[in-house]
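User: Some background: our group keeps a shared notebook of sequences we're curious about, and every so often someone picks one and asks for a predicted structure to add to the entry. Today it's my turn. The entry only has the sequence so far, pasted here. Could you supply the structure so I can complete it?
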Amino acid sequence: MKYSIGIDMGGTTTKMGLFSADGQMLRDAEIPTRSALGLDVMFCDMADCVRLLCAEQQISLQDCAVGMGVAGPVEEDGHVEGLVNLNLYDIYPAKELSQRLDDIPVAISNDANVAALGELWQGGGKDCRSLLFVTLGTGVGGGLVVNGQVINGRHGLGGEIGHIKVNPDEPELCNCGGRGCLDQMASATGIVRNAKRFLAKDSGDSLLRGVEKLTAKDVLDAAKQGDAIAEKTVDYCMSFLGKTIADINYIVGPDVVVLGGGLSKAGQYLLDVVYRHYDRYPTLTKQRSRFALAQLGSDAGRYGAAKLALDLSEAERS
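Assistant: Of course. Here's the predicted structure to add to the notebook entry:
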């Protein structure tokens, strides 16, 4: 295929991009994700937007591969047990869209894995074959690409590192129902929670004291300025992430680890903290994965979905 369309289906907005086969985004579009009006409306909206993108570039739909990323585990047959943020359950999103696009094939994967593929294709992991993508925001997400192939796993949970249990001493429950998940420790929420704990235990001066509605950005900014409690918080929280990456390294051995999400805006400072903890653990080799910051931002999903579509098209031809 000469062209592909990548679709990143979010809870509020669905982002789309029309791409050339070499990874250039030729056109982009955003439409509301009108899931509350039912499956037919939502997928007809998407199909109409796909057709419009093709028409604007005078491209035949049959000459364009289509891929999509969704916020939920995707099983091998394309079944999605639930898209919780859309209140949709037991659906086949790729089939739904394909039926409204003259039955052309639609590739599908979890949105974090699709974003990982996007970063490998045209972002922080460009020119690599294997990548671990870690998104640090309100929660911790992850995506794995090995030898150019997205790792979904049998039940669609491949790369879902946020709910690896890393801290048996964590007293609070995670949203998943577990306790001590990486999500609770290394996310923006986890940084704020632990900063408040350290502030309660330490009477020393801190830039964080008295800050109303404390945010992870506040903590990271204070840490960069040498605030002791903020530094202790970031170091503690990222120690769990560094060790988790090191553990994954023994299983996957990615060429590159890419950090994305809102917390990655802390830049090289955060990257260095995580790498320092990661570097403590591998003992069987002096070789290390390269660490990099994500480059595609919120566009990673549509880039990755477009590449997923191109890969499916290539596989069907071979």
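Suggested note for the entry: The longest helix spans residues 228-251. The chain has two domains: 3-118+298-317, 127-294.
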